[in-house]
């Protein structure tokens, strides 16, 4: 905005921003459009109506759970953005794991669970330590790790009846109850920042993350750029992931666990 850009802000609930730090920035927007409850067709009609009078030059998505909708609108308007196919893929962690496996990329063992019976079977098959997280989750929420059978026993009854849960992500979005069960890999979690233009990836640097103590997965802080890692190996590994999932445009933040035996991808999302 300081450079003269005009912003139209779309939201499903404007009240979420009232009184929050930085909310005063909304006053600088050219227009704020609320679609409540969220409906893609209504959202697209509103965007097209504005676009006819004041054409948009770019679209920025600020939250993972609306990435697919943002990609669909960008395609409709002929604007550069991540393709709808890739957007849908990266919003399903199990499908990403499948794609990486098909491309021979190193990653932990994993299983999909869509029922309590499948969840129990996946835990038995993967063994410990393991990690359970929603396939459509975001922001490191609703993730649980069990390092041993002893850790898991107190939660066995809970997980025997866990699904369906339909976790409310907010903004009119609920979990699809697809769970990813995967081997937990101990190591240093880093974020690899890249930018892709016309299919060519550019390495920007490594974000050395500091987390709150277990069992939490929230990030406490970070240092960028970090230089204590094998940059070339990590860069090549992340580029292979981006190629595998068809990441064709924009900034990406790929979380990687640097373990003694290898690099293990955690997730790759538009940044």
Walkthrough of the structure:
It is a single chain. This protein has helices spanning 40-53, 67-77, 84-90, 93-102, 116-126, 149-152, 156-160, 231-245; strands at residues 8-11, 31-34, 110-113, 130-134, 144-146, 168-170, 173-174, 179-183, 188-197, 200-211, 219-223, 250-258, 263-270. It is α+β, with helices and mostly antiparallel strands and 271 residues long. The protein folds into 3 domains: 8-89, no CATH class; 109-183, 2-Layer Sandwich (Dna Ligase, domain 1), CATH 3.30.1490.20; 188-270, ATP-grasp fold, B domain (D-amino Acid Aminotransferase, Chain A, domain 1, 2-Layer Sandwich), CATH 3.30.470.20. The strands form 4 sheets. The protein has a 5-stranded antiparallel beta sheet, covered by helices on one side. A 4-stranded antiparallel beta sheet has the order 3-8-4-5, with helices on both faces. The chain has a two-stranded parallel ribbon with strand order 1-2. A hairpin with a 7-residue loop joins strand 10 (200-211) and strand 11 (219-223). The radius of gyration is 20 Å and the shape is globular. The two termini are 20 Å apart.
